[in-house]
TrEMBL record:
CDD domains recorded: OAT_like (cd00610)
Protein name as it appears in the record: Acetylornithine transaminase
Keyword Thylakoid found: no
Top-level taxon of the source organism: Bacteria
A GO term, aspect molecular function: N2-acetyl-L-ornithine:2-oxoglutarate 5-aminotransferase activity
Keyword Transferase recorded: yes
Name of the top EC class for this enzyme: transferase
InterPro entries xrefs: AcOrn/SuccOrn_fam, Aminotrans_3, Class-III_PLP-dep_AT, PyrdxlP-dep_Trfase, PyrdxlP-dep_Trfase_major, PyrdxlP-dep_Trfase_small
HAMAP family for the chain: ArgD_aminotrans_3
Keywords of this entry: Aminotransferase, Transferase
EC number: 2.6.1.11
Lineage start: Bacteria, Bacillati, Actinomycetota, Actinomycetes, Micrococcales
PANTHER family from the UniProt entry: ACETYLORNITHINE AMINOTRANSFERASE, MITOCHONDRIAL, AMINOTRANSFERASE CLASS III
Amino acid sequence: MMNDSTPGVSATAAQAELLGRYASSLTGVFGAPSRVLVRGEGVHVWDADGRRYTDFLGGIAVNALGHAHPALVAAVTEQLGTLGHISNLFTSGPQISLAERLVDLAEAPTGSTVFFANSGSEANEAALKLARRHGREDPSGRRTRVLAMEHSFHGRTLGALAMTWKPAYREPFEPLPGGIEFIPAGDAAALEAALDETVAAVIIEPVQGESGVHGWPAGYLQAARDLTRRHGALLIFDEVQSGTGRTGTWFAYQNPAVTGQDEPVVPDAMTLAKGLGGGFPIGAMISFGPQVSDLLTAGQHGTTFGGNPVATAAALAVLDTIAQTGLLEHVRDLGARLARGLGAVDAVTEVRQYGLLIGVDLTVPAGAEAPVPDGGLAPAVVRAGLEAGYLLNATGPSTLRLAPPLVLGEEEADRLVADLPSLLDSAL
Ligand code: PLP
């Protein structure tokens, strides 16, 4: 078994052949991949040349338990061998158990319900339909607006895209579904000014991930809760990236480091995906309380695969393992350790850390003569990382976003901190 990383070598041999076939057989919407990955175990993956990488990307906040975790493999294998798919004309034990568990972990009130989808975008499509239903329940007929935050990311399907801020993602596909407005992120006065009886919902990521990991001023999420309640609008939290233990609590709105208060900021609806299935595709929307749950009635929404027995069994295995192995506390401790280490590196100007969701702003180190590489320093560090045996991710020219498996160990965390200066050197 090859399990050593071999720094300094680009893709060769078997990989070059596969990458060539990729180029002629798959759409280029994700840009050219630089590696073909063939195997994973724990916090490591191996490429087609047998080289090992430590995974600080985690499938972009997906592989909560790392790769090939025995509990996840066993749950999926057993469920697939027992009952693999049934359609939503029926239900299954894992589907019911997962819905109950999510409502429980979310501390949602009695009468809360779960709708299952297959991805974050789909979960947010459901949330947007929920918002529309809420608006149409208003006898005035004027509750048509949905407010989203500047710098938000909610997905790439049309409804989710309409709530996503980034112009480069939106403009090629306009016109998008209407009625959605963006307000300055984290500005309670701006939110108050935008809210009135014409707003059906406000959607917020409790920590914005794709924007480079940005939280909110202390008290902002509670202010959003109070203001939406006062104006009869739904408060929807998109926890696709920040949920399922990623910040060190089950959901970010329960995390004092995110909200600035001990009590959770309870939304009217929450969307989940990514880490929930630990790598198996699943999304979910939780409606808090009977009034919100009753907004979507039979026949108004659905998907063929959502809540599939295998996907829900996978998610149950993820939640069980997080609970049974004390991962939430581990995420809080290790995240803080990693942030401390990274913050002490010369070229790091800011670290924004919420558990193991970490944004790292970089600048050219003092004394370095080289210019900033084309495309920015952070993407160059990602490329240097690949050569040195790391999977990293940049959300912009100067920002790394780390979202490693929640099972990352101290040794790997410390090693990245120790290696970052040399990655920066190689990047320049
Ligand atoms: N919402 C948030 C906050 C996300 O970070 C993402 C993906 O990055 C999505 C929604 C979209 O999820 P998916 O890619 O599973 O459709």
